[in-house]
Amino acid sequence: MKIVMCASEVVPFAKTGGLADVVGALPFELREQNQEVIIVLPKYKGIDEKRFKIERLKDDIFCSTLGKNIKVYFIENNVYFNRDGLYGDKLGDYKDNLDRFSYYCRRTLELLKEINFKADIIHVHDWQASLIPVYLKALYSDDLFYKNTKTILTIHNIGYQGLFPKEEFPKLGLPWNLFNIEGIEFYDKINILKGGMIFSDIINTVSSTYSKEIQTKEFGFGLEGVLNFRRDSVFGILNGLDYSIWNPAEDKFIAKNYSLEAIQDKAKCKEDLQRYCKLPESKDVPLFGIVSRLAEQKGFDILSEAIDEICRMGVELVILGTGDLKYHLIMEEMVKKYPKVISLHLKFDDTLAHKIYAGSDVFVMPSRYEPCGLGQLISFKYGTLPLVFKTGGLADTVNDDNGFIFDDYSKDALIKTFKKAVTFFKKEKKWAGLVAQALNLDFSWKESARKYIELYAKALSK
Ligand code: ADP
What global pTM score does this model have? Predict the structure, then answer.
């Protein structure tokens, strides 16, 4: 099959979250399984042309190659993409995000014709690429080039929908009759993700549980009705993990490489992390790690309420991440109060992230909702037991045999689960058993990519 992968962020070129990891890894495994894949993304200012050997193909199009001949095309537009941020800056989202990503979508469809890539499947991700299926059906329905092309939309987080004022609609170049309840109108606003959900041939999310959750009022963010309407075309495939990046046996960022056979060496990583974070270097104190956006979605509301009590449990806590100012401030207060317990790093830092996954005993991820979650999958691989709320992809991967899971989203349940982890930590044999279970799990992309190929085949048969 000929597949085009369209997303606003892709590892190793541009990343703000899990989406980039997914779109950076899936093509490799699809390629391994004999599919032809290309990737198209905006050419942001931060993408290092030299490092990735990016060359100008023509006018505004640049090209580079990943792995076994996966061509990556970059769309240049100095007005829209030559900026420091992907989606916004300190002041919030860029005001012209509708212009920026609608341009990306339209240019992508033109580009495929220019390079004569007759795709079987265009696989679009999240709202930023969601106009592609809309344009295909609305503007290219008579175009023979796209006659046999099918689209799949993967929703990585339905909380981000690309909402814009109605007044911006003319910029999209779409007929006004699409601005209605069966189209991309949503409470008198433009909802780009909704457009993708209506016009794509198949809708997919990143775990089976999440694909069902988003069809309910509680998790659907207002789009549950649309999903219900299309429920025969809604699927869930768990993300894989790129073990060439996340593997304690080969990780260059950690103090000592280790695997199940030499699990005692994980202690060196803990020591290193404690030293790096200026925390007391004790192996007997359970070390809890967090690598996350500091957002309510990630459980920072209940974590903020519980943190004072957690800090008095005889633990250490390393937090890496950025997010809502409110949570920055709460955590900074806690550091002042418990400097020997919490180490706080309000930044994006890949090296430290690796050190935390390797050096912690428990990885904390009490997300209120979690489409798939990569953190828990990474922590399994590093023999670090995840502590999670039972939702979405966390519910599909974590259980009492490989981590700590609670099913009542509250401060009290979170505290109780921390206490349980602390108690377990003292039972060395039991702990070693859980760690061994976690280390034996396999969430490589192989199986997920196989399922995606099945889904592509399903789309083609529509
Ligand atoms: P999200 O909803 O943010 O995409 P995921 O768990 O799916 O959450 O993926 C988050 C990814 O981003 C993980 O690979 C995690 O390690 C990484 N990450 C998040 N915050 C940071 C940070 N501050 N520094 C380094 N890596 C981070």
Answer: 0.91
